[in-house]
Amino acid sequence: MGNVLAPVLNLHRPLRREEPLTNPGSFDELHRKCKEVFPQQMEGVKLIINKALSSHFQVTHTIHMSTVGQSSYHFNTTYVGDRQLSPTETFPMLVGDIDSCGSLNAQVLHLVAERIRTKAVFQTQQARFVTWQFDGELRGDDYTATLTLGNPDVLSQSALKWVATLNIGYGGAHASYYHRASEQVQVGVELEANTRLQDTTFAFGYQLNLPQANMVFRGLLDSNWCVGGVLEKKLPPLPVTLALGAFLNHWKNRFHCGFSVIVG
């Protein structure tokens, strides 16, 4: 009799190589991806003019004519320094916004060290000091630690195509989820619970990008029976963007619509 050699099966599957975690970003950026998907409510007529005075200095004029509230004018200035860490991060940065009523909102961002960022926010209302806030941020390889005076801490997870954020404090909780389904479709879900007011709200938003038509559409549906959308249309080669928005609240039987022109 002869010997038969049978192949030996390897029952041990190779371990899956895990990709290293990336830094989730700053505290302010955690909810930004989700909020950008939602359309901003429009009412009346708005004109926005952007002007870059230099590579470091830019001003913006905003005129809003409302049929419901008070019409206003905003003057915004932005200064950026020479130290650029990424396409969206340049230090130091100073941002100031003042309206026709004398209310001021100013922010100062500074890079203390390579991994330490600071931000100070000052706000006044009709020449009366209202509030201030100071943030200190330490960025590691796969985490971000933030200390904010007067605000709770944050727990987050992030990835290339989705961002999930949970913000818990004494007054309630705020959670958001952003998902980039494709280059054209982005969705966001937001849940906010307020223990003081005993109120919980839920909102779902989506964004559709049509680059061939130079159009962007954002839609909204929330737990207050409010539906709405904003359509933005660029008019190349002119630096002009037209936006048309409409919102309907079924519960309160209210309808708002608006039109804006953005130059720059």
What does this structure look like?
With 264 residues, the protein is mostly beta strands. The chain contains 1 helix and 17 strands. The chain has one helix spanning 32-37; strands at 44-52, 57-65, 72-86, 89-99, 104-111, 116-125, 128-139, 144-148, 154-158, 162-169, 172-180, 185-194, 199-210, 215-222, 226-234, 240-249, 254-263. It has a 17-stranded mixed sheet. A hairpin with a 3-residue loop joins β9 and β10.
Summary keywords:
264 residues; mainly beta; Porin; 17-stranded mixed beta sheet; globular
Mean of pLDDT = 82
Could you name the CATH class?
Mainly Beta
What is the H/E string? HEEEEEEEEEEEEEEEEE
Name the CATH architecture.
Answer: Beta Barrel
CATH topology: Porin
Beta-strand fraction estimate: over 45%
CATH homologous superfamily assignment: Porin
Number of strands: 17
Computed over alpha carbons, the radius of gyration is 24 Å
Gross morphology: globular
Ranges where pLDDT stays below 50 over 5 or more residues in a row are: 1-17, 150-159
Proportion in helices = under 10%
Going by helix content, strand content and strand pairing, the class is mainly beta
Total of domains:
1
How many helices? The count is: 1
Distance between the termini: 89 Å
Taking the sheet with the most strands, its summary is: 17 strands, mixed
Short description:
The chain is mainly β and 264 residues long.
Secondary structure elements and pairings:
Blueprint: H1 32-37, E1 44-52, E2 57-65, E3 72-86, E4 89-99, E5 104-111, E6 116-125, E7 128-139, E8 144-148, E9 154-158, E10 162-169, E11 172-180, E12 185-194, E13 199-210, E14 215-222, E15 226-234, E16 240-249, E17 254-263
Parallel strand pairs: 1-17
Antiparallel strand pairs: 1-2, 2-3, 3-4, 4-5, 5-6, 6-7, 7-8, 9-10, 10-11, 11-12, 12-13, 13-14, 14-15, 15-16, 16-17
